[in-house]
Write a structure and sequence with these properties.
By secondary structure, the chain is an all-beta fold. It has no helices and four strands. A hairpin with a 2-residue loop joins strand 3 and strand 4.
């Protein structure tokens, strides 16, 4: 399936059911991707203070 490809800008951090957490290789910012049938949603994941969740990425 398409979400297992890790050769682009994003790394799949976790995938469960219809939800996938992606990490931007350049910024470390985490995104939540939800795909249900023909609908898709993508949003930045934020902490309790509203700041983007950032995962350290290896150069």
């Amino acid at each position: 399936m398409w979400y297992h490809e890790n050769n682009g800008r994003f790394i799949v951090k976790e995938h469960k059911g219809v939800s996938t957490i992606l990490v931007d290789k350049e910024t470390g910012v985490n995104y939540l991707l939800v795909k249900i049938d023909y609908g898709v949603g993508l949003t930045v994941m934020v902490d309790a203070d509203g700041k983007p969740i950032v995962t350290p990425v290896n150069e």
